[in-house]
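Reproducibility note. Readers wishing to regenerate the assembly model reported in the main text can use the exact inputs given here. Chain order matters: entities are listed in the order in which they were concatenated for prediction.
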Amino acid sequence: MSDHNNKKWFSLNLGNGKKEAKGSCGCGKTSGGCGSHTNNHQMSDAQFDAAVDASIGQEKHKDGFDQVFDVKMDRRTAFRQLTASLLIGAGAVSSSCSVVVDDEAKEKAQIDWEEQFKGNYKLMTDNEKKSTVDRLMRSYELRKGKSINMSAANAEEDVLFGYAFNISKCQGYMDCVSACVEENNQDRNSQMQYIRIHEMKDGQGFNFNEADDNYYHEVPAEGHFYMGTQCFHCDNPPCVDVCPVQATWREDDGLVVIDYDWCVGCRYCMAACPYDGRRFNWSTPEVPENEINKNQHYLGNRMRKKGVMEKCTFCVQRSRAGKNPACVDACPTGARIFGNLLDPNSTIRWVLENKKVFRLKEDLGTEPKFWYFMD
Amino acid sequence: MNKYILHILACVFFFLCTLSSCKHSEGEYHSITDKIEAESKNYHGTISSEALLEGVQTIEIIEDEHTFLIPERKSQIKSYACTECHSKPLIEMQNNEDVKKAHWDIKLAHADLNTMNCITCHNGEDMNNLKSLTGNSIDFDRSYKLCSQCHTKQFDDWKGGAHGKKIAGWTPPRASMTCVNCHNPHKPGFESRWPVRFNTQKVKERE
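Running the prediction on these inputs yields the following structure tokens for the assembly.
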């Protein structure tokens, strides 16, 4: 249990001792460190009292809200007491139900516990990332009876993703929007879409006040041109600076990503983004089971929860595997170009060096990695 | 004396300020273009798209300084080789009542008839190949050479990668679609159609 001490969160033992013989346990790890390899899960009365004392000892004489609010304590004590209270609850559940509850339910509880106390993805080691996605895959299998493939691939060396959009090629068909929704498992109820295609009048420049991003008529319409916006993966992203919990950050390959399980849903980033690149889950996202894209990435298209932010990740599950994002693959006109900005022979570099390119709101200094150009 | 020390202190302070404002910290650049330029100097790519290209028949072409792959074409044309039917000179086949009419679905909508007709690109004497404006033979696999005779700007953009889609992914080796993979050579324009999506929720939200 040596690496047990290196873990950044506490593991609960819910009595999966039997599985140890098979060499694996509920958390999906094959070697130690998940904390479920001991059998000592019954709590004696004396231990229970001690735990109660540790948890609410000082507040025994107080009543009602005072117990919670009228207390001076530092963060460390607060967390210790919270853990102690949780221990009581979990211990009680474990000791009262351990006879009747089957292994699967215990494994689920184990996974839930590990999920509850896992760390920020940004701070995880590669092994922790691996066991986290393994756990999530196992969790999905236990709950839905179907297996998914979730990747924790890190940024490749010598890669910086960039994107170019040809405004004279886009015809406004919105194939990209459709492909994006399907690829990234976006909520079908609220019809969340990362990409917006703006229909703009010829001769008025980029006039977003007059543009229509939800047209429905035969396209391309006479006297109009089309341009798309999405997350621009700024090199100096204002959304990252404002996040109070560091749940969003820029990866080494330039992708601005979100840890959906670390996000507290304050929506500061949504307000800070000058490009309307971020989306919020006002309700629990729902995708019909047969439409779920099962090729997932922890930072990409895995299923989100209610109350967290999400946005375009340049399809991290695809781009880190060498593929183009779904929008690029879906575009029938070739208006979308994606590639590695650090590769001097890449097509994106040729576009930047040979076409007249510009970016949106360049004066803000956000350094978006999304360029527009014309034929 | 105090003034002198103050002066020196002010100078040092100013110097430090200038120093620190130049580079905020290690690895930060003034602009993304600086960053790209600096970090791509020692570029050595690691991942390749070869696995994604499996099952796609491609040919390698070299145009100017660009070398890349395009899909092989002849195996994709349903009735190639053309000479399987075009065994006689065209004039004989056109006037022969016994032979079934063919290519009835092709209506030329490419430039106007003063500029182009069938024999601008096809050679009645050599149906298995295309022909250039000067009468040279062009292989069906390299039909872009035909298009580039007029569409020079598009050809330049295509060679560089600004025009046309890529096959597989963003990683080298580069594989691009060729002209006829997206444009029907007899009717190269894109047709107008309805967008594939309409966001009814957005309409409600904005009411």
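We highlight two features of this model. Residues 149 and 295 of chain A are 5 Å apart (CA to CA). The mean pLDDT of chain A is 85.
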